Amino acid sequence: MSVVDAHHHVWDLAVRDQDWITGPELAPIRSDFILADLEPEARAAGVSATVLVQTVTVAEETPEFLALAASSDLVAGVVGWTDLTAPGVADELARLRELPGGAHLVGIRHQVQGEPDPDWLLRPDVRRGLAAVAAAGLAYDLVVQAHQLPACVKAAVGLPELTFVLDHLGKPPIARGEVEPWAGDLCALAALPNTVAKLSGLVTEADWARWTVRDLRPFAETALEAFGPSRLMFGSDWPVCRLAASYGEVLDSARELTATLGAGERDEVFSGTARRIYGLSAG
Hints:
Elements: E1 3-8, H1 35-44, E2 47-53, H2 61-70, E3 75-80, H3 89-98, E4 105-110, H4 124-135, E5 139-142, H5 149-158, E6 164-166, H6 182-190, E7 195-199, H7 213-227, E8 232-234, H8 247-257, H9 263-278
Parallel strand pairs: 1-2, 2-3, 3-4, 4-5, 5-6, 6-7, 7-8
Helix pairs in contact: 5-6, 6-7
């Protein structure tokens, strides 16, 4: 089965610091991780295409990622960053589309998880920016903490023309084994037709040293029931996943979590949903 990895990152610390990588617990990923490091792992795992996702709120990163996608036969799409609160966000999205590799721009993301305002997504200036993302035909990736899911629901209700892609299932508290209130909030988001989610980032929400697939299962099954396979997509979250698991282990865990699905349903999770939502080529 051909696999699309709908969520990974790259960074070169000589080009730009990743100021979020702080503390001794993150030391294993305070290093360079470039596309050449990912490619052999992805190819060995049967991955035929990937979506490269922004890491920092720096305008220069997105053009770099687009150029990288243009030179790669692995990266099929880029979820970039732009300042959603800027008055000229629509013009900026158009400019990005005209850059080398601009056709690979498939979505926009902002680190909402770091915003102190729990209703940041609902601010009028942010809503204007999100409307511009929708008008440009792009998706919007939600990187949020579990407690921010209610605001995501309100944002998605207010912008039915925009497809919201929930990264990492909204970061449920897997290590604590607490399914609620996360599950109820996730189901409220999934009830909206303009939302999809990524089966990604789960191993790093679990106990890094001792997690098992059994720990992940209640959260993955909740998402599968809420969204269905045609609105879920696999993502490795490489290299962040390396804090808890190798690339192969992450993919193997996702396969185990979806083992009871039919072949067509698994194809949706591991390829079809990402290709359809992000408009990736079928090659």
